[in-house]
Design goal:
By secondary structure, this protein is mainly alpha-helical. It has 2 domains: about 55 residues, D-Maltodextrin-Binding Protein, domain 2 (3-Layer(aba) Sandwich); about 55 residues, no CATH class. Helix content is about 45%, strand content about 0%. It is built from 6 helices and no strands.
């Protein structure tokens, strides 16, 4: 961000949360998002796909545990995380932080990453 604001670079690829405050201040213009749908944080900014670029690569933050964690422990963690992610005290702070909530269970997250891997595999293979 420092290089962009200082004029050393013309373009920055970053997450919404890394540029949102500068965007709101009018210091940078977000040209597009790499999400499937427009961001609820910046709905006026079109997706890259809507602009003709077939790029869908949303950033995610995940909470992970080591492989082999017992199912009963996973269930306790998922219940606590679901409750926390529904809490107004948590949800209300997300937009100011530049994050949008997309809660997934461990099974849903596993499926998400399998689909993501399948989608990007051709790009990674071609880049080798």
């Amino acid at each position: 961000m420092t290089a962009l604001l200082g004029g050393q670079i013309d373009v920055l690829v970053g997450s919404v949360n890394s540029v949102l405050s500068q965007h709101k201040a009018g210091d940078v213009r977000i040209l597009g998002t790499a999400t499937a749908q427009p961001s609820t944080l910046i709905p006026q900014v079109p997706t890259l796909a809507a602009q003709g670029y077939e790029v869908v690569s949303p950033g995610t933050l995940n909470i992970s545990a080591p492989a082999g964690v017992p199912a009963d422990v996973v269930a306790v963690l998922e219940k606590a995380l679901k409750e926390a992610s529904s809490s107004p005290a948590f949800v209300d702070k997300l937009p100011a932080s530049g994050y949008e909530l997309s809660y997934r269970t461990s099974k849903e997250l596993e499926q998400y990453w399998a689909e993501t891997e399948e989608r990007v595999r051709p790009v990674v293979t071609a880049a080798k």
